[in-house]
Amino acid sequence: MAKPEERLIRNISDTALWVAVFRARETERQDALFRDPFARKLAGERGEQIAKGMQAGQRYEWPYTARTMRFDQIVTEQIKQGIDMVINLAAGLDTRPYRMDLPPSLQWIEVDFPAMIDYKEEVLAGEKPRCALERIRMDLADVNARRALFQRLGSNARKVLVLTEGLLVYLTRDEVSALARDLAAQSTFKEWAIDLCSPGLLKMLQKNLGALSEAGSPLKFGPEEGPEFFAASGWKAAEVYSMLKTAARIKRLPFFLRVMSLLPESNGRQGSRPWGAVCRLTRM
Questions:
Q1: What is the spatial distance between Cα 212 and Cα 194, in angstroms, rounded to a whole number?
Q2: What is the DSSP code (8-state) at residue 185?
Q3: Domain count, the chain
Q4: pLDDT band at residue 272 using 50, 70 and 90 as cut-offs
């Protein structure tokens, strides 16, 4: 366990270690829905400490599995639809360039804090990605830097898929809108995969995952509009996958939630209802 004087989660980057543990656990199942042979090593001892210490977080393992599977599905399908570049913002410890069946010609761009990329490159030293991988050390809060990056990348591709897996929930409404507009400003940025929660789910997560707030990384974004929030910034929902129904379909949903998964759901406004989804947005 973590030392008493040490916070369980020290900063937002620690959440990547925690999520890697979930990917490792799924990988080690006989009926694994995906296999990430690098997850256990990337999570390391620190990731295990966090996973064991976050007692409230244990109940949230199933949506991470559902989220990973849906993002994998979107990447695979969009490659078939002709994308030639994937931009993974706040990529964390994602290993899709290594573990997925990708065309060698695909350009895959990872953007994250320098320390995160340094750690990842150290652990994965000697491993070979299956596509053309570039890593960029950047704080995405630097608006001018990210706009310049988006412009450079956009001019080097014909059809781009952007991934923000596990990022938007840490931003304010204004910050999400600004990022959405910056992405929409590039004509070659055609598709955008996100995960989204309702105000009801956001409130529940804020209550149960207080360690994130203590680490200075509070959860902030759960728009009452649902996917329609992004319309004002030039994006519309092309696909919406409920976390609950996805987890039920893939047989990862806890028993006590199975009845709830049978209830009808809306892809629009959710209000106080706990609801989460993976969405593929496309340019309007």
A1: 20
A2: T
A3: 1
A4: confident
